[in-house]
Each structure stands twice: as structure tokens, then as C-alpha cells.
Amino acid sequence: MARLSIGILGLTELFVSAAVHILFGFYIFSTAVASDLSQVMTDCFRPNVFNLGARAKEEEGKGQVVVFQGSPPPIVLVHGIFGFGKGRLGGLSYFAGAEKKDERVLVPDLGSLTSIHDRARELFYYLKGGQVDYGEEHSRHFGHSQFGKIYEQGHYPSWDEDNPIHFVGHSAGAQVVRVLQQMLADKAFRGYDTSEDWVLSITSLSGALNGTTRTYYDGMQPGDGRSMKSICLLQLCRLGVILYDWLDISWLKNYYNFGFDHFQMGWRRTGLSGLVDLLLGNTGPFASGDWILPDLTIQGSIRLNSGLRTFPNTFYFSYATKRTRKFLGITIPSSMLGIHPLLFLRVLQMCQWRFPRNASPPYKGYRDEDWEDNDGALNTISMTHPRFPIEHPSCFVEDDSKCHPLQPGIWYYKIIKADHIFFIVNRERAGVQFDLLYDGIFQRCRKQILRSSTPILPNESSQ
């Protein structure tokens, strides 16, 4: 009887989680379609005499690549999981139009569900140009093509140590940038003499720097952080993504793409038997583990972080979001009104997370209570600065005016009251706070044009 009750409770939770994700996906998709239809209607009813010049200019610019020359350094906004860059989902902006605040901003479109490694490689070639090279050893190990999309011209081909870049990453995008910087330091791109100094600053906005307990609720196994439970939300997601990629409908994939083209899962390539293998979990990214969720578990983040450094010549700043509070010693959602309706149950769930007793804790000294504060997708402890397996040098910021000038090699972090999607997609929802946040980020980037001549080195724990 007890097992039956637990099974019913689990299925109910799965149904609710699936409904929440489907609703949110529909919300994003319908917002994009509505924006496109609105633009079409505006163009139709606008007198041609006023519209001819703008339309001609738009058509002329469709094939052009944005290339910045000179100073100041460009700012690159990197989206998170299920995210999208400029050109996807019609006219919808993942960063809710924040890119319009500065003339030298790039918003790359990376794989929305591909692994941190693969997205970091894509980001490099998006900027420098050429054909994406995922690495021979990595590609062979995970069973996909070594080469991917071709950028005829990079969006910032002059990128080097003398022409560095500011990066702003939301959610998993922050970890993508950190992995990219480590690849630059390791000279991991054949034919390029790279270094960590190609990155001038990294700003993490609700960044997944240490993983999240959300992954276990959605279906990752707490025991290893790699495999999925047999029945879970991620299994439903897996089936949907496989069918989407197998059908390979070009206009639909141009509108939104999960980023698995280098796995070549389309029906023309695999046929019906290939679809069966994919669905059974014998082939593809979900079988090999080369996708985003294993990288976002606590164990997966520790594996990544063990090879990532905080560099002495790079500026680091992090905004950690939080929508919880303490009440009679119990962590609960901070309010009903301040949390997006689709995230409220997720905030409540994450407050109650307890690591299974039959599974080994992800690191020595792990405590459930440290991971209770969250924003509905990530735990606040994960967003402040790299902590596990080794804590990197950091400085808590309560008042921005009291932490100037910033020193490179140190993670400055600030905790703000917001949920995980407060500063993306819907600008009106964030209101004045939206402008305060992004104006502050861009102004800080513009002040960090030159590195300090006497940088403060991080302590040995960051090495």
C-alpha cells in the first residue's frame, strides 16, 4: 500500500512538472509567434512610402555579419539551457532586448541542450569564424561528427589578447564561458595561439557555477549525476527532442534548434531503424551523455570545475538570484507575487530537497540545508562563485559603490531578490530593476577596458 501511494505521488509530481514545462514552452513559443504576427501586420498596414527604405535596408542586412573594429571591447551575451540567440524564434530576444542598450553587443545562438563542451567550441568559432571543430578525441568518444556549422566570417575575427571580450552568461551560459576561457588557456583550438587573456571579464547572471538540485527532481540519478531515471520529466524531454530532430523539418529547425545537428539524427540519415535505436537509448546524445543535463548536476559541475581556473588577469562578477526566505527555521518561497507562476512550485520543491540516504553525497561536507535557497531553477549557493571541489577567491558585494575599483582574479558576487527568468524574455516583468541590472553590467564592462598593471592574484585554491 505504501509503495502504491509513493508511485501515485511520483506520477502526480511528474504530471505537474510536465504541465509546468509545457506551459512555459508554449508561453515562450506563443510570445515569439505573437511578436512576429504583430510585426507582419504592422508592415502590411504601414504606408509603402514610409516603409520602402526600412524594408530595403532590412533585406540588405540579412546576410551581413556583425564585425566590430577598434575599441571598446564588445560584450557577448550567452544564453542558458533551452535558450536561443539572435535570429531564432522570430524577433523574440532571450535577453529581453538588453542587447539594444549598447552598440557593441553580440548574442550568439548556441545549442540549447548540447553539452557545455560543445557549446564552448561553438562560441569560439561564432566569434573567430570558420567551421566548428568539436575536437577529434571528444567527437570520437561521444559518437558525433567532429565538424559542425561553418561561419563564413566570424562576428569578431580580430579577437585576441590585444582585442579581448567581455562575456555575460545567464544560467548554463556562465559555465560555457568559463570552459571556453580554460580552452583558450590550454590552447585547445588548432591553428590559433590563444590564451586566457582573450577574456577581459566574465559576468555570471544566475549562473550554474556549481550545479543544481533541480536536475535530480527532473530525472537525473543522484547517485552518479550522469544517468536518467526510467520514468521522469527528462525522459519525456528526450523523446520529444529525438522526434523533433528526426523529422528534420527545415523551417521549424530554423525557427528553433536544440543544437544536435552534429549527431545527425535526421530521418534521411538514420531511417526508421535509426529512430528506433534513438528512442531505445542505444545511440545519440542522450545515450552517450554528451548533453547539457549531466553537466548541470552537482557531480557534473564538480567534474567540470576540477579543470577550470580563475585567472589573475580577468574580472569576475556574479549575480546570484534568490526567491526564498526563512520562516520559523524552515526555508519557504519568499512570496506568491514575486515568483513567476510557472516557477512557484519549483521553488517550493527545491526548498525541500534532501539527498537520498542510499546515495553517496556529491562532495565531502555536503549539507542539504546549504542548497535550500533557490530561484526555481538553480540553488543560490551555486550561483555566487565557483565553490566545489575547491573554493575560488570571492568577495560578497552589498553596495556596488564600496567595491571599486574591482580587482581581477576575484569573484565579486551580489545576491538579488529575483527568480531564474526575471531578467530574460519579458522585460516588462522586471520593470525598473531590468534597466538597473543591465545598465550596471554594461557600465562596469565599459570601465574595465584596461587590465590593472598590478593585478591581485587569487589564492592557491583557484589553481
Automatic annotation (TrEMBL):
Primary location group: secreted
Listed GO molecular functions?
A: hydrolase activity
GO terms classed as biological process: lipid metabolic process
Q: Which UniProt keywords apply?
A: Hydrolase, Lipid metabolism, Membrane, Secreted, Signal, Transmembrane, Transmembrane helix
Which parts of the sequence belong to the Lipase-like C-terminal domain? 74-186
Which InterPro entries has this protein been placed in? Answer: AB_hydrolase_fold (IPR029058), Lip-like_C (IPR056304)
Cellular localisation: Secreted
The portions of this protein that span the membrane are: 6-29
This entry carries the following GO cellular component terms, namely: extracellular region
Q: Which PANTHER family match?
A: ALPHA/BETA-HYDROLASES SUPERFAMILY PROTEIN (PTHR34043), ALPHA_BETA-HYDROLASES SUPERFAMILY PROTEIN (PTHR34043:SF3)
The name this protein goes by in its record: Lipase-like C-terminal domain-containing protein
Organism, as annotated: Canna indica
